[in-house]
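Do me a favour: review this protein, sequence plus structure tokens, and tell me how the chain folds. Record follows.
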Amino acid sequence: MDKKKDVDDIEPGPAPSRPVDRFGFIKTEQSNSPEGILKSRPTHERGREERRIRKWRKMIGTGGSDWKHYVRRNPHVVKRRIRKGIPDCLRGLVWQLISGSRDLLLMNPGVYETLVIYETSTSELEIIRDISRTFPSHIFFQQRHGPGQRSLYNVLKAYSVYDRDVGYVQGMGFIAGLLLLYMSEEDAFWLIVALLKGAVHAPMEGLYQ
């Protein structure tokens, strides 16, 4: 649930005729293949990235079990490492820990499923209209009514019901789409809630009101 989705794990339907980068976006220049990029990285850079990942794993613990303890004891170390950049393979989990969305999910079991299955939104037609405009060059969202577009619709619809004062705004699709590349639907939903309602940091919902 917390692992970033690898390109190989995504089911986009028919294989794209053009190559994609390591994040799943279709490339415009075939000369910059993922293999070429990987080979072009100096060995010392790859080694440095592996050391950073080990430090982050030790800091957050299994499934984030050590995160709060480490933040309380070493807040300056956490801030410095975040500013240097969170390793790509750990971003989904770390974003949830930083935002407080993991706690929201644990405190609200079954809420997301109820919003998706049993509630209706006045914004459903708008969401459907905008789905194909969200990351159209990414293989996860390219297939019409495919798994990516369905997940994106579910998250946006659920939030529009959860927070009827804000509802749905077109720009939300790109935030939700990015999160879905790193985590499950339910995790992405609660992360959006944490960001907009301000579970830990200042709320962002004013951007959409």
Residues 6-13 have pLDDT under 50 and may be disordered. The two ends are 31 Å apart (CA to CA). The domain at 105-197 is CATH 1.10.8.270 (Helicase, Ruva Protein; domain 3). The chain is about 55% helix and 0% strand.
